[in-house]
Amino acid sequence: MDSHISKVKALYKGHSASETSNKESENGICQECGNLNGFGDDWSTWCTPCNSKHFIDEFPSWASGNNNVDELIRKTQINTSHYESTFEWIPYEQFTDIKFISKGGFGQVFKATWSNGPILYWDREKKRWFRWPRVPVALKVLFNSQNISSDFLSEITSHLKLYRSSNTCSEIVRCHGISQNPESKEYIMVLEYCARGDLGKYLAENFDDLTWSKCLDHLLDIARGLNTIHSEGLMHRDIHSGNLLIDVSYAAIGDLGLCRPANSSVSKKDVYGVMPYMAPELLRGKPFTQASDIYSFGIIMWELSSGHRPFPNIPHNFNLALKICDGFRPEIVEGTPECYKELMQKCWHENPIKRPNIANIVREIEKWLNDILEGDDVWSKADSSRNTIKKLPKIKIHSEAVYKSRLLPTVNNELFVKRSIVTHEVIIKRSRESCNELSCNHSQASCDEFRISNNNY
């Protein structure tokens, strides 16, 4: 599994040893305070008390223009425990070679080169941060964020602790900091750049070359990332293939806490996301839980098995929401291994309580990958079936199939009950017709009662 450290080594392996000899500390001991470092590896060591002081000393040298943004950055910097969790205000003029990538429901994404680059360690001799220069980054420009809400920033704050909890969490897209477009005044999240784009784009371009082993590698990365999120008591709330990113050799989860309007507080009743990935309880207006993320993960499993986005040829409207609440799911692809199918169906089970937790999912996928290494022919046979699937014609995407996060309609419980009553009435009518045709000897009341009690609506 690659990490940000290995990527740094790959990008900057040309630097000489002398350039990295002035680290703030050596051999696990901070040379400024004499205490043990909280973190260390071949490329950096980190003393949180000393580096917190360095950050504090630099507070007067920058300002975002928004007190809430400044407070978010300062609090994060004071608690930084290793270089991969650094978070800072990044002046817009440090970005060059800016190129448009895509547009989503709440922002648009650009690729850029960050001229200064991220912090690696404190250089004691030069009394400044040593950085890796000219790093490629993704810039997520947040629509209508000129008056960014404190509620939105609080959501970002809760997710930033993920980087503090894991030294090399490569399955979560790193957030380097915040910037601002000087013309539009819209705020920008500066994110790790993943070279192969989002999962939907990646599958469209590479599905024909993917084996089950490679798909399971990506699925395991996503599961591990989600496990990191859930182990911190957090939820993603908007897992779909547009928020899962592929770098050269691994997959990572992105857009944590960013899938909602940046300029307003959001009602707990509002549901934002991509409808085909949203759990039925959410579409009924129920609270979000970690089990809701598991449902979305199940849909991602289907996407990796089919090479298609879910429900591409129908409108993503209120009728689809009703059908999902009724149990409508993507059709399982022929040749999918039975163990994979069973786990996928458990993940998208209508009852959240019956969905597996992410830690067990991680263990199951690890077992499958081990089975492949040991030559289990279940997966080699599945690869043969997969070759047949690859020859099928591509599905045309409906003009009303929306794969961007947005405010979704919810199924009113009262409406759902009324719809169920109408369904019962249709069943009763049909049962009466059947009784008449068969000259049934039972009373009409008992026949109606039997039909209703034996139809689970």
Q: What is the CATH top level name of the largest domain?
A: Mainly Alpha
CATH A-level architecture of the largest domain: Orthogonal Bundle
The radius of gyration computed from the alpha-carbon positions, rounded to a whole number of angstroms, is 26 Å
Q: What's the number of extended β-strand segments?
A: 16
> What class do helices, strands and sheet pairing give?
alpha+beta
Unreliable stretches covering 5 or more consecutive residues = 1-27, 414-418, 420-457
Oligomeric form: single chain
Series of secondary-structure elements, N-terminal to C-terminal: HEEEEHHEEEEEEHEEHHEEEHHHHHHEHH
Distance between the termini: 46 Å
Please outline the major beta sheet.
6 strands, mixed
User: What is the approximate shape?
Assistant: globular
Helix coverage percent of residues? 25-40%
GO molecular function: ATP binding; protein serine/threonine kinase activity
Organism: Rhizophagus irregularis
Keywords: Kinase, Transferase
Domain Protein kinase: 95-369
Short description:
Keywords: Kinase, Transferase. By secondary structure, this protein is of the alpha+beta class.
Description of the structure:
This protein is an alpha+beta fold. The protein has three domains: 63-192, Phosphorylase Kinase, domain 1 (2-Layer Sandwich); 199-411, Transferase(Phosphotransferase), domain 1 (Orthogonal Bundle); 414-453. 39% of the residues lie in helices and 14% in strands. The chain has 14 helices and 16 strands. It has helices at 4-12, 48-58, 67-78, 150-165, 199-206, 212-231, 280-283, 290-306, 318-325, 338-347, 358-373, 377-389, 413-438, 444-453; strands spanning 25-26, 29-30, 39-40, 45-46, 88-89, 95-103, 107-114, 119-123, 128-131, 135-142, 175-180, 187-192, 244-246, 251-253, 272-273, 406-407. The strands form six sheets. It has a six-stranded mixed beta sheet with strand order 5-11-12-10-7-6, with helices on one face. Strands 1-2 form a two-stranded antiparallel ribbon. The longest helix has 26 residues, at 413-438. The two termini are 46 Å apart. Residues 95-369 form the Protein kinase domain. GO terms for molecular function: ATP binding; protein serine/threonine kinase activity. Keywords: Kinase, Transferase. InterPro entries: Kinase-like_dom_sf (IPR011009), Prot_kinase_dom (IPR000719), Ser-Thr/Tyr_kinase_cat_dom (IPR001245), Ser/Thr_Kinases-Pseudokinases (IPR051681). This is Kinase-like protein.
